[in-house]
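Model it.
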Amino acid sequence: LHHPGHVHIFARLAREGLVGRRVVLLAKDRPDVLQLLDDMGLAHSSYRDLRRGKSLFWTVLDLLYSWWRNLGAILAEKPDTVIAVAGVYCGLPAFACGCRLIVLTDTETATLSHRLAYPFAHRVLFPDSYDRDLDRAFGWARGKAIFYRGTQECAYLLGAAIDVAAPKHDLAGPIYFLRLSAGQAFHESIDRQSATVRRIVELLARRGRVVISSELPLPAEFAAYAYPFARAEYHAALAAADLVITEGATTATESAILGTPYIFINRNRYGTIRKSLDAGLGEAVDSLEQCLTLLERAAGALDWKRDGAARFAEFRRGLESPLDQLPAILRTNRKEL
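Modeled.
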């Protein structure tokens, strides 16, 4: 586990087991990941994250260290199957120990990590909207690929997998949820106290309540809008929002599944994003300036959520979880894979 989303994906497996198997969680020591594991009461072990920014030296060192720590964990636990998102940190160790490896992926452009995972995988699970033409490493997955109707986020946002009861806070009035990821343009613009970001926040604040969920501390000017809920209530807050603005494909897809319209600020139109865009559940723009223009043109209180309720319900009916594929795979003899 090296991303909060991975915690959500595997939480149900950790609690309920899988085809009679005990589930063991191994996480990289990233504060948001470990805090979420603790908040959800999930037993886990962890190892250090050695990366330092975009340094190639530290990235390579972190990969080698991760392989070593994953190898040690596999030798200690002796699993018959390793399941991972992306699989870059555990692919080679699983292969070296003779373990079956199941990889989940939804990012077509992660070519390097795919080349470090696909060759060692027995099965690779892809969303049905995955654009194979964009994945230059897809050849390594031929004969191993399984496509399912949905996205990775369906693993924790469909059916009984999530409790979207309202957070223990006052959520009266329209709520506009801004999700900022470290290193992306939206967050950097907040840090620079960009006039465009200020105008977006002011415009939304006149129409309702603004909530900013940020991976990094917010400048004092925007501190009053900081996300006030517990980490475990994050998806409940997304579900309660009237509009989500984000640069992240994960947050945009989560919003669509939960029935909340989104504005996706990103030049990339990944397969999973196109699935909800084609269903009319969100808008995609290339820049903050285009986002501001879109909001300025919108009349009234941005009633996109109420107006699109039927489309969101139809979208959900056509989805399935990638975890639904696992029992059949695990019941198959490894030699038959």
